[in-house]
Write a structure and sequence with these properties.
Oligomer: single chain
Shape: globular
Number of helices: 6
Number of strands: 8
Radius of gyration: 16 Å
CATH topology of the largest domain: Rossmann fold
Mean pLDDT: 92
Distance between the termini: 33 Å
Strand content: 15-25%
Helix content: 25-40%
Length: 214
C-alpha cells in the first residue's frame, strides 16, 4: 500500500516535522527540485503559512547523469556550478571515466534546456532555506543541490523529504543544518513505490506553483 496519495499529500505531512527543524523567527524559502519536489514544496509552503511562518517557494535546477542502459539509475547530478558523482554507482558496467564525462556533458545540455524553460531561481542570501524533493534514492541530485545552495546562501540550510533510502540519507544528512526524512527504506526500490499517484509533471505545473507560492 502506498504511503502518500500524491506529492501534495506528502508536502502536507512534512509541515509539522519541517516546522520543528526551522530556526524560529526567520523567514523561510522552500526550494524544490523540479519537477516533483516543487509540488511537494508548494504544499509545504501553504502549510507553513497556515502556521504563521513567512514562507515562499523557489527552485534549484538539477539534471541527473543517466546511463542509457540503466535509465532509472542516477550515476550523478549536475547543477549550474556543481557536478556530483554517486559513490554507489562508480562501478556500473560500461561506465568508465571517459564514458561518465560524456554522460555528464549530455546532462549539462538537458540542464540548460530545463533552466531555460523555468523561472530564474531567487534564493535569498538571508533567512532560512529548506530544500525539498519528492524522494531521495541515490542522493546525488540532493547532494548537488545542497552544494549549489551553499554557494549562494551562507545561512541555515535544511532538507526534508517524504521518503529516502536509508544509506543515502545517512550520507546526505550531515551536509545540511537540519533535516527530516519521514520514511527511510532499506532497500529503497523506487521513490514511486510510496505514491499512489506519481504522475510525471510538465513544466507548466511547476511554473504555476511558483507563480502562486513564490
Amino acid at each position: 500500500m502506498a504511503s502518500f496519495r500524491d506529492r501534495s499529500d506528502a508536502g502536507r505531512r512534512l509541515v509539522g516535522p519541517a516546522a520543528a527543524e526551522l530556526p524560529a523567527g526567520e523567514p523561510v524559502t522552500v526550494v524544490g527540485l523540479p519537477r516533483g519536489g516543487v509540488l511537494v514544496g508548494a504544499a509545504l509552503v501553504e502549510g507553513l503559512r497556515a502556521l504563521g511562518w513567512t514562507a515562499r517557494l523557489d527552485l534549484v535546477v538539477v539534471a541527473k547523469v543517466l546511463a542509457p542502459e540503466f535509465p532509472e539509475l542516477a550515476l550523478g547530478a549536475v547543477t549550474a556550478h556543481t557536478t556530483v558523482r554517486s559513490r554507489a554507482t562508480r562501478h556500473v558496467p560500461g561506465v568508465d571515466d571517459a564514458r561518465y564525462a560524456a554522460l555528464t556533458a549530455e546532462a549539462r545540455r538537458r540542464l540548460a534546456d530545463r533552466a531555460a524553460a523555468l523561472p530564474e531561481p531567487r534564493v535569498p542570501a538571508d533567512g532560512s532555506v529548506l530544500l525539498v524533493d519528492d524522494g531521495l534514492a541515490t542522493g546525488s541530485t540532493v547532494e548537488a543541490a545542497v552544494a549549489e545552495l551553499r554557494a549562494v546562501h551562507p545561512g541555515w540550510l535544511g532538507l526534508v523529504v517524504p521518503v529516502a533510502d536509508a544509506s543515502a540519507w545517512a550520507r546526505v544528512r550531515p551536509l545540511v543544518d537540519g533535516g527530516t526524512a519521514l520514511l527511510q527504506r532499506t532497500p529503497m526500490r523506487a521513490v514511486s513505490v510510496d505514491y499512489a499517484d506519481f504522475t510525471q509533471l510538465a513544466d507548466d505545473v511547476v511554473r504555476a506553483a511558483l507563480a502562486r507560492w513564490g
